[in-house]
Amino acid sequence: MGAAAASAASVASLGMTVAGDIMGGSAKQAANDYQAARLEQAAQFGKTQAALTDATMRENLNNTIGTIDAVRAAAGVDPSSPTTSAMVEMNTERSNRQRLAAVGTINSQVAEQEASAKYLREAGDFAVTQSYVKAGTDVFSAVAKSPFGFG
User: Fold this and answer.
1) Which positions ≥6 away from 83 have C-beta within 8 Å?
2) Does the pLDDT of residue 149 top 80, yes or no?
3) H or E, element range at 93
4) Would you say 113 and 49 are in contact if contact means Cβ atoms under 8 Å apart?
């Protein structure tokens, strides 16, 4: 009866080891999925922030151009004056450069967050696959060491 009890305990231990391996991989996947979801949410917020920054900076440019036009008109300057055109063009170029830099920075961060989220999801899937491989290795190792094994 002692050998039977030892065999039963050995099988039970193996079962617990296999279950632990698989649960460990699933836990790692769940943690990675949670972090990925947080990054995806941050990326979505970043996209919104980029769109709002773009819109706000365009509105600011329109206000600046409107102010230039109003000041020049109040001074009695012809609206088609080359000086007026140069001032508008200079402000437009400066504003566009600033807007593109600001939006580009936000979009770069969004891309990094999306890439990190994708990596975490793939790493979670890999952890699950590896947990099954480890469980299989544990089973084969136990069988090889048992009296019924390969040796």
Assistant:
1) 77
2) no
3) helix 82-145
4) no
Give CA–CA dist 5/82, Å, rounded.
Answer: 99
| Closest C-alpha to 113, from 57, 66, 43, 63 | 43
Length of the chain: 151
DSSP of 9-20? HHHHHHHHHHHH
What would the two tokens of residue 16 be? 């617990």
Q: Fill in the DSSP letter of residue 21.
A: H
CA dihedral angle for residue 141, residue 142, residue 146, residue 148, rounded to 10 degrees: -80
In percent, the amount of the chain with pLDDT more than 70 equals: 92
Of 9, 21, 52, the residue nearest 1 (C-alpha)? 9
This prediction has a pTM of 0.75
Domain boundaries, the chain: 10-145
pLDDT of residue 6: 58
Q: What percent of the chain has a predicted confidence (pLDDT) above 90?
A: 72
